[in-house]
C-alpha cells in the first residue's frame, strides 16, 4: 500500500473542494451567518499566510481564545495543515491554569474573539511566550495593550493575503496537530497532544454509522466548546465527511439555543447534560420547532434518565457517550443492541456505552488484577488505542500514576460487560476502599437522596483501623424534615449489601461544592480529619 | 498518542467478544447455517493452532480456494491475526494464472471447500510451494491425491485444538495481511498486498455512514466473492462494527439468492451488476419477500439505469460504487447530494460516485497535464491514498506504466467533477486518441446501439496517418434490419461532436467476446490490421 501519511492538510483540501458547498453556520444572536466550506478553505489559506507573516514556522504553537464560530473553524484547519500546532485555550480555566498551559507549550500567537477581550486581557501579560495577538471581529482592543504585545485585527491580517497556501502534506502523521488541557478538579491542568493520525482516525470513528454517523446529510449543533477536547472531534470530522455544522458562538443559554434550532434546523447536536437540562425546561415551556433535530450526543458527565425521557417526548433521542481529554474523546457510545426493549433498553441507554474497535478497555480490580468482563466486577477503567494519549505534556515519560503498562488509567471506576458496555459508578479518588473491596460513593449517595427527608448526601471514605477505609455519610436534611442515622441506615439496608452500610454519620447544613457545583469531597475529608464534624458512629453506640 | 499498531488481531478480538452474538449465516441450499462471531473467534483460534501444527510460521502464506462461508470467514481473521498472510485464490482464474499467483507468493497451505475439490485438483500438482491441503466439509478428496501432498480434513485439523491462540498484536501495521490478484484481461494477473493498516482504514470507511454504513443493525448479503478484492472489505468491516453477514456459499443464481433473502432477511447486499440483473428478472417473475433489503452496492462494472429503476420498484436502492483490486477496493461511492432530484439525481446515481477523504483522485489529460476538476475534461484517472497500492508484487519498484509519481494509474478514463464525483467512460486501452483529443469508444457504442437496426456495436481506434488514431465502428445488425454506414453516421451526428464521427465502418455477424462476455476489442484491432475486415471509409467515398 502507498505510504500516504494521514495529515490534516488532506482533510482541509477535501472538505473545502469536494464538499465546497457544505455550510458552517455561526449564530449571531439574531440569525445564522453562513460560511461555506469553500470559504472556510480560502479563509484558512489567508490565515496561514497571515500567521507566516507573524513568524509562525515549523511546529510553532498557535493558541485560540474563541467561541465556536467560522473563524475558529478556519484556525482548526489552517494551523495543523500549515504544520503548526493548534492550542485552543479553555476560556473557563482559572487565570493561573491558563497561563500555565500557554507557557508550558510556548504559544506564539493568540487568536481572540473580540467579545472575549475582557476575559483575555488580565491574563495576557502572564503569557510570556506570546508574541502577537490577533483580534477576530469587533471589540475594543485597548485592554490588551497593557501586555505590550502587537495586536492585529484578523480581517486586516488576512484580508489582503492570497487565497492559497503551500500546505504541508509530508511529515510524520504522528506529529502533533493540536493540544488540549484536561481541567482536573485538583492541581494544574495536564496537556494532551493530538496527532494528525489520531485526529484522522477519530474523525473516521465520528463518521461511523454506529458512532455519530457524520455524513453530508448531517448538520450538527456543536454546543460543546471548541476549547474542550477539540469539540469532541466534530470540526475535523465534518470536513472529512461533508457534514455541516451549526456554531452557537457565545449564545449558550436555552433561549438562543432554541431559536437557532428552529431557524437553522440542525439534525444532530452535542453537549454536556447541563446544557440539555436547561434547553428541555425551555422547550417544555416554549413550544419550538425542533423537528429536524433527531439525535443529540451527551457526554462529559452522567446523563439522568429523566433528561432522556424528557427529550424522547420531543422526538429527540439522547445518546450517551463517554470520553475524556485524554481519549480524543470518544471512548464509548451507548447505542443499545437491536431488539432490546423496556428496562433492558434503559440499562443500555444509561450506561456509558459500548467501546468501538479502536478502543481497548479493561477493568483493573482493587487487587491489581484485570477483572472479568462480567458487568459486575468493579475496578478502575483503563483504556488503550490509537487516539488515547500515552503521556502528558508535563513529562517525557508516562507518569506511572496515570499509565499502567501502556494503558491510560482513566480515574473512573465501574464495570465492563461481556458485550463491551461501560457502566461507570465513581471517580477512583472518591471510591471507598474497604477491606479489599470497593464501595461506590455515588451509589450510596443516590440511595440516600432517594429518602424523603434527605435533600443532599455526600459519602466519602475515611480511615479505619480494621478495614483501611469506611464510608462517612454526610447528610443535609430537607427543611422541616427529620431522620436519625439509624433510620437512614435501615433505609439503605434494603438497598445495598450489608457490609457497605456506613457506620459514621454526620448532618450538615449544606454539602461543600466546587466552583462548578460538584460536591467538594476533599473539604469533607479534611473537616473529618481535623475533627471539625460532629460524627455519630453507630458501631460504637 | 499511544503507539498502538492497527493490527487485525484487535479486530478478531473485538468482533468475537464485544459483538459475540452477531451472526454470520451461511446458506446451505435449503436454509441458513448460523455461526456467531464468538464461534468464529473460537474457530479462528483452532484454525491458527492447526496451521501452526502444519508449520505455518512468521509471514508464511496461507491460500484459500473457497466460497463465501463461515469457515472462510474464520480464515480471513485467523491467518492475518496469527501474523501470516492470507491469499484467497480466485477460483475463476485460468489454471495458468492460478498456478502463477500461488507460486509467486509461495503459498504454503491451501484450504479448499469440499465442493471445490474438482476445480482445485487438476491445478494442485502445479502449486509447487504448497505443502499441505486442508479440505473444509465433505467431498471426495481422492482427486487431490495425485499431487502427492498431505491432505487434511478441516474438522480433524481444528477439532481438538484449543479455543485460544497467542495472536500477534505487535509488529508493524504496514506488514502484509492479505494478497489478492487483479484479473487483467490481458497478460498475467498482478498481485496486490493489503496491509493490516490498509484493511483497518478501509474497514472504517465501510463503517462510515456516507459509505456502506456498517453497524450492528446491518446484515449484509455478501455475494461478491471473498476471492475477489477481499469481498470488498466487508468481512473485516463486519467484525470491526458488529454488522452481521449472510454468505451465499456456492448458491449464486437468482432462485437461491431470492430464497436466502426471504429466509435470512439481509438489510444490505453487494455484488456486480450481472448478479442483480438476474435477480431482478427472477423477483419480477416470482414475488418474494425482500422487505428487509433496503440497499445494495453495485460495483465491478457500470450499472445500467434500467437495473436501478427496476430495483427501485422493489424498494431496494442500488448504490453504485467504483474500485479495483488495487484500491482495496473502495474508491468512490455514488450517494447523490441531499436535495437533488430528477435528471440531476440520476446523473449522480449513474456516476461512479464521490471520493471519500482518504482517496485522492485526479484526471491526467492526454497531454500529461492534470486536468481541471470540471466534470468535462477527459483523461486517465489516477488515485492515491492509504488503501491504494503503491506497487505490484511482481516488482520491488512501482512499474512506471502503472504508477505516476506515487499515484496509481487506474487505466480508467473519464472525468472528475468539482464535487469529487467520478464519471468513467472507457478503459484507457480502448480510448481512441485522435489529434490530441480522446474519443470514448463506449459512448459511441452506446449511441450506436440505441439505433433500432443495431443489435451490437464495438468501436476501436485504428491507426490514421493524419490524426494518429480514428474510430472504426463495427456493427452487428438485428435480424432482418438494414442500415447503411451513411444512415448510422447521420444518426450519430445528432448525438456527438462532429469530429468524433467514425469514417470507417464494418458490419459483423457477431462482436468477438472474451470468456467473461466482454467485447474482445483486440480481436477486432488484429482483424483490421490483418486486412480481414471489409471496411467502408466514408471519407474516401
UniProtKB/TrEMBL annotation, chains A, B:
SUPFAM superfamilies: Acetyl-CoA synthetase-like (SSF56801). Residues 19-393 form the AMP-dependent synthetase/ligase domain. InterPro entries: AMP-bd_C (IPR025110), AMP-bd_C_sf (IPR045851), AMP-dep_synth/lig_dom (IPR000873), ANL_N_sf (IPR042099), ATP-dep_AMP-bd_enzyme (IPR050237). Residues 443-518 form the AMP-binding enzyme C-terminal domain. Keywords: Ligase. GO terms for molecular function: ligase activity, forming carbon-sulfur bonds. It comes from the Bacteria. PANTHER family: LONG-CHAIN-FATTY-ACID--COA LIGASE, MEDIUM-CHAIN-FATTY-ACID--COA LIGASE. Belongs to the ATP-dependent AMP-binding enzyme family. This is Fatty-acyl-CoA synthase. It comes from Actinocatenispora thailandica.
Amino acid at each position: 500500500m502507498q505510504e500516504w501519511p494521514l495529515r490534516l492538510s488532506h482533510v482541509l483540501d477535501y472538505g473545502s473542494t469536494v464538499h465546497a458547498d457544505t455550510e458552517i453556520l455561526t449564530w449571531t444572536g439574531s440569525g445564522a451567518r453562513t460560511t461555506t466550506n469553500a470559504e472556510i478553505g480560502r479563509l484558512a489559506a489567508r490565515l496561514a499566510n497571515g500567521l507566516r507573516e507573524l513568524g509562525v514556522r515549523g511546529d510553532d504553537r498557535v493558541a485560540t481564545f474563541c467561541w465556536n464560530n467560522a473563524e475558529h473553524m478556519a484556525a482548526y484547519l489552517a494551523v495543523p495543515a500549515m504544520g503548526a500546532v493548534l492550542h485552543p485555550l479553555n476560556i473557563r480555566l482559572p487565570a493561573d491554569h491558563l497561563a500555565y498551559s500557554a507557557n508550558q507549550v510556548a504559544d506564539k500567537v493568540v487568536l481572540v474573539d473580540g467579545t472575549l477581550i475582557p476575559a483575555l486581557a488580565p491574563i495576557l501579560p502572564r503569557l510570556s511566550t506570546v508574541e502577537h495577538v490577533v483580534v477576530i471581529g469587533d471589540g475594543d482592543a485597548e485592554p490588551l495593550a497593557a501586555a505590550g504585545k502587537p495586536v492585529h485585527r484578523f480581517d486586516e491580517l488576512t484580508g489582503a493575503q492570497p487565497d492559497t497556501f503551500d500546505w504541508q502534506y509530508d511529515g510524520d502523521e504522528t506529529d502533533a496537530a493540536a493540544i488540549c488541557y484536561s481541567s482536573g478538579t485538583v492541581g494544574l491542568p495536564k496537556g494532551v497532544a493530538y496527532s494528525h493520525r489520531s485526529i484522522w482516525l477519530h474523525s473516521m470513528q465520528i463518521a461511523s454509522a454506529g458512532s455519530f454517523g457524520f455524513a453530508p446529510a448531517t448538520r450538527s449543533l456543536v454546543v460543546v466548546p471548541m476549547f474542550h477536547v477539540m469539540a469532541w472531534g466534530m470540526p475535523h470530522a465534518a470536513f472529512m465527511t461533508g457534514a455541516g455544522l451549526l456554531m452557537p458562538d457565545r449564545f449558550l443559554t436555552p433561549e438562543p439555543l432554541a431559536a437557532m434550532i428552529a431557524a437553522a434546523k440542525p439534525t444532530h447536536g452535542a453537549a454536556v447534560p447541563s446544557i440539555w437540562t436547561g434547553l428541555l425546561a425551555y422547550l417544555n415551556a416554549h413550544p419550538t420547532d425542533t423537528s429536524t433535530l433527531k439525535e443529540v450526543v451527551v457526554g462529559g458527565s452522567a446523563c439522568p434518565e429523566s433528561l432522556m425521557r424528557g427529550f424522547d417526548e420531543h422526538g429527540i433521542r439522547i445518546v450517551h457517550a463517554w470520553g475524556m481529554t485524554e481519549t480524543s474523546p470518544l471512548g464509548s457510545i451507548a447505542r443499545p443492541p437491536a431488539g432490546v426493549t423496556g428496562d433492558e433498553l434503559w440499562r443500555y441507554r444509561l450506561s456509558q456505552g459500548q467501546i468501538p474497535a479502536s478502543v481497548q478497555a479493561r477493568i483493573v480490580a482493587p487487587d491489581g488484577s484485570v477483572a472479568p468482563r462480567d458487568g459486575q466486577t468493579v475496578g478502575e477503567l483503563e483504556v488503550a488505542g490509537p487516539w488515547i494519549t500515552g503521556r502528558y505534556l508535563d513529562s517525557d515519560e508516562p507518569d506511572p500514576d496515570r499509565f499502567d503498562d501502556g494503558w491510560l488509567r482513566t480515574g473512573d471506576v465501574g464495570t465492563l460487560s461481556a458485550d463491551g458496555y461501560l457502566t461507570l459508578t465513581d471517580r477512583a479518588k472518591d471510591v471507598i476502599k474497604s477491606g479489599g473491596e470497593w464501595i461506590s460513593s455515588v451509589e450510596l449517595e443516590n440511595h440516600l437522596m432517594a429518602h424523603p427527608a434527605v435533600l443532599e448526601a455526600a459519602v466519602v471514605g475515611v480511615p479505619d483501623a480494621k478495614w483501611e477505609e469506611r464510608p462517612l455519610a454526610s447528610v443535609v436534611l430537607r427543611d422541616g424534615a427529620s431522620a436519625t442515622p439509624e433510620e437512614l441506615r435501615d433505609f439503605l439496608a434494603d438497598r445495598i449489601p450489608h457490609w457497605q452500610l456506613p457506620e459514621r454519620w454526620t448532618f450538615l447544613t449544606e454539602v461543600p461544592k466546587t466552583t462548578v457545583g460538584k460536591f467538594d469531597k476533599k473539604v469533607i475529608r479534611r473537616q473529618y480529619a481535623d475533627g471539625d464534624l460532629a460524627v455519630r458512629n453507630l458501631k460504637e453506640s
